[in-house]
Amino acid sequence: MTPGRTTLITGAGSGLGAALAARFAREGSNVAVLDIDLDRARAVAADIEADGGSALPLAADVRTAADLHAAVDETLGAFGRLDTVIPNAGIWDYQRSVARLGGEELSAMFDEIFAVNVKGYLLTVEATWRELVKTRGSIVMTLSNASFYADGGGPVYTASKFADRGLMLQFAHELAPKVRVNGVAVGGMQTDLRGPKAIGLDSRSFSDTIGRRSGTANPYIPLHDISTDPAGFTGPYVLLASPTDAGAITGAIINADGGIAARGFRNSAGGDDL
């Protein structure tokens, strides 16, 4: 990546967002570290600065357009330009099925998850696209295996990630040819992804859930032994953000999920003893 470019990442105070912030800084980009929790954003930015990078911590609620516009203004004031935007902030539904919840709970959970996962992406793009047109920049959305398949969450989370996939394709159409828009559909990883407050899951993290699961990894996923460290999922974002390496790519999704599309009805064909 060309040094001097600027990347804004939402949900960058922990997990995948923090790993992306660190990776883009190492690639030479200035990084706007945006999170709803300013202390977490400051901690990530401080680590980047200590490693010789350039970072700006920002507090914003992605559900609020004014917050996002203010964050863009601060980013421009600090770095003068905006080249890459990564809508990444999200919450999970902890696979709560329709059979486990009543109508009022489902309604409240739907409103909360869609406000963050879908409206948050929509408003992030609305706040940034004008600056990206100026730099012929790009948007790389964090999608999910739940953007394609069942059981990556419950019905509400899955619906939200299918919606994000639709947003990505629509934005790739609307913002062409000045702005490229792509996505990375990630699998499960060690991250602080939280649940909806509406059903009391806002203090629970995805990492805790992974840690509590017993037994071996899912043998039906071909790359079931890959690391769940978020840092291992950042490469596709760097590729798609690069105007040199991905200048002809828009409306595309890289699936970084261990090969779910190649799963079968038995263990991965080669096996661990291959």
Describe this structure in words.
- Helix 3 runs parallel beside helix 4.
- The protein has a single domain, classed as NAD(P)-binding Rossmann-like Domain (Rossmann fold, 3-Layer(aba) Sandwich), CATH 3.40.50.720.
- The model has no long low-confidence stretch (mean pLDDT 90).
- It is 39% helix and 13% strand.
- It is an alpha/beta fold.
- InterPro entries: NAD(P)-bd_dom_sf, Sc_DH/Rdtase_CS, SDR_fam.
- GO terms for molecular function: oxidoreductase activity, acting on the CH-OH group of donors, NAD or NADP as acceptor; quinone binding.
- This is SDR family NAD(P)-dependent oxidoreductase.
Instruction: Look at the structure and name the CATH superfamily.
Output: NAD(P)-binding Rossmann-like Domain
Number of helices, counting only DSSP H or I runs of 4 residues or more? 7
Based on CA atoms alone, the radius of gyration comes out at 18 Å
Structural class: alpha/beta
Strand content: 5-15%
* Overall number of structural domains: 1
Question: Roughly what percent helix?
Answer: 25-40%
How many strands in all?
7
* Overall residue-averaged pLDDT value: 90
- Unreliable stretches (pLDDT < 50, length at least 5) are none
Task: Name the CATH class.
Answer: Alpha Beta
What is the second-level CATH architecture?
3-Layer(aba) Sandwich
The major sheet is characterized as: 7 strands, parallel
Biggest sheet strand line-up: 3-2-1-4-5-6-7
* Helix-strand string: EHEHEHEHEHEHHE
Instruction: Give the overall form.
Output: globular
The CA-CA distance between the termini, in Å, is 37 Å
CATH topology tier name: Rossmann fold
